[in-house]
């Protein structure tokens, strides 16, 4: 997090490095990278963090499984293709890490009640970027699209299940994503913070061999959902 904050501060340092310059957020700024949005294709990279949760639907009403999530990190690259003046197609493959702990009710033993679910995802989002009219060196935008995750931490091929303390999730999942951000044009590059939600479409849970398993028997579906915050540099 300290490194991410330091990178954010670089933008403002560049903006204020000369006393006689007009800053990005001034009333009448000098227009930076004026022809950038006319580029057909451009690339960048991003750093960020995430908070993954699980949406659990049950077959019958009963005590809910509690999910403790922690803040993970993201890193990846961006390929952007301009389709028209206000519409871009973006591909943002990256590595995402997250960790969750499930607390099951009605277990006397902590060994049975707790299940740790780690995720090391290769994230493949394909997004449409809808940009507004540029105002000075600021250009807000909306994002929407679909994504697929390959979970490198998945143990889907394991023959063991929760009876052997093995909680299993599928390797591939699909999601839809919605969010917004802002392009900030500095003298040498574009800094683009964004926030979006990712919502799982497919069920990720692999059931235990016992259909009446106290860990998976009452679960209709288990889908990931996440808040993703990225700081992109072009």
From TrEMBL:
Entry-linked SUPFAM superfamilies: OMPA-like
Coiled coil (residue ranges): none
Keyword Transmembrane helix: no
Record's keyword terms, sorted: Signal
Signal peptide per UniProt: 1-18
Domain Outer membrane protein beta-barrel: from-to ranges: 18-204
Source species, domain of life: Bacteria
Protein name: PorT protein
Source species of the chain: Flavobacterium laiguense
């Amino acid at each position: 997090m300290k490194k991410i904050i330091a990178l954010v501060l670089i933008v403002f340092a560049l903006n204020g490095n000369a006393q006689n310059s007009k800053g990005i957020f001034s009333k009448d700024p000098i227009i930076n990278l004026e022809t950038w949005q006319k580029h057909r294709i451009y690339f960048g990279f991003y750093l960020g963090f995430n908070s993954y949760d699980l949406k659990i639907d049950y077959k019958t009403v009963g005590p809910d499984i509690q999910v403790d999530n922690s803040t993970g990190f993201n890193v990846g690259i961006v390929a952007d293709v301009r389709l028209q003046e206000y519409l871009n197609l973006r591909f943002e493959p990256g590595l995402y890490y997250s960790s969750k702990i499930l607390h099951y009710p009605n277990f006397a033993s902590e060994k049975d009640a707790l299940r740790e679910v780690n995720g090391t995802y290769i994230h493949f989002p394909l997004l449409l970027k809808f940009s507004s009219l540029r105002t000075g060196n600021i250009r807000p935008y909306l994002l929407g699209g679909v994504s697929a995750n390959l979970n490198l931490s998945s143990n889907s091929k394991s023959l063991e299940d929760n009876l052997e303390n093995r909680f299993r999730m599928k390797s591939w999942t699909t999601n839809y994503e919605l969010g917004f951000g802002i392009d900030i044009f500095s003298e040498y590059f574009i800094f683009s913070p964004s926030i979006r939600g990712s919502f799982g479409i497919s069920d990720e849970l692999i059931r235990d061999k016992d259909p009446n398993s106290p860990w998976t028997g009452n679960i209709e579906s288990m889908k990931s959902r996440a808040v993703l915050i990225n700081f992109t540099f072009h």
